[in-house]
Amino acid sequence: MSEISTSPTTSRVVTETVNGSHKFTIQGYSLAKGMGVGKHIASENFIVGGYQWAIYFYPDGKNPEDNSAYVSVFIALASEGTDVRALFELTLVDQSDNGKHKVHSHFDRSLESGPYTLKYRGSMWGYKRFFRRNLLETSNYLKDDCLKINCTVGVVVSSVDCPRLHPVRVPESDMGMHFGSLLENMEGSDIIFNVAGEKFSAHKLVLAARSSVFRSEFLESSDEGKEEIVVSDMEPVVFKAMLHFVYRDTLMDDGDEPLMPSSSSCQPPVSEWLISKLLAAADKYGLVRLRQLCESLLCEKIDVTLVGEFLALADCYHATELKAISLRYAAENLAAVMRSDGFEYLKEHCPSLQSELLKTVAGCEDDCSSAGGKSRSVWAQLSDGGDTNERRVRSRT
């Protein structure tokens, strides 16, 4: 009886770090002083290695024994996680352009005990005595009452590398390009849209595949001989951008340049006007992904002056995520929002949204209470005049 032999197999475990950085600017340092030992200002959360992180700056220090003689800086795990192993680097930026930054780093050096382990959400790494305060205030690190702190996080991950004998590179999908050429060349078109006198040729099957509204009109309707549809409630440039999305699954800006989905790091400029008009078009024609892309782009533009307008848009066109985020932003910046023209518009045209805003404010207050006072009270904004900056700096105790 002969033996059957097989070739040996191999595998390799690769342990490396997934790195990401965040730049945190603290404007108005002198106003942050005196908030109290153990109380901090937090950066916005940023994601590295699948976890959320935040930078905590303590202007009066974290350690009561230091009597506010030092400022403290920490990196905190801001999402759920157990035994997250990571490397860290904190850099206080020298603003004199001399390059003499103050750097505390795990990277590029041998670690006796390995990477730092964060046990749970809220675990931190950093320095209680990051810099003596009286020296900081006379240094080149403080300029125009502004501090700049750069942070790098390297999350340790392990993966099994199994070599393939015949790797095949699969190109990116070009389906959108092919369908887009149908639209551009009008090959096989069987429907015409008349938008304010400008005509657009399209294909019923493509539209029906992408839109539940078009599917009902073209495939389920008995009026099959219809060859031209008049669109009276939309501008030609908006309808053109909508057709571009239907065929190519991407957006275009006002200048007909393609606009990639919001996950792309390189986006050409696009106006709030076009996005809001496309949001209305997505709602009218049941284009769910288009609505979500518009919501994502509008969320990136939210500020005190626009949040009222965005709330009205979200409420009108069933943009639930944009509405929830806008309500939360308005609640957390209540005093400044109440002084904006957008709030006056809400009072006049969307009074029902005011009650929803009040409920969100109450929810923010509940969050403050359940977190042991870790967020600044929303109602406290009204007593001190609020923060007029469009992008606030939240202080947490």
Automatic annotation (TrEMBL):
It comes from the Eukaryota. PROSITE patterns: BTB, MATH. Residues 388-397 have a biased composition (Basic and acidic residues). GO terms for biological process: cellular response to salt stress; protein ubiquitination. Gene3D superfamilies: 1.25.40.420, Apoptosis, Tumor Necrosis Factor Receptor Associated Protein 2, Chain A, Potassium Channel Kv1.1, Chain A. Belongs to the Tdpoz family. This is BTB/POZ and MATH domain-containing protein 4.
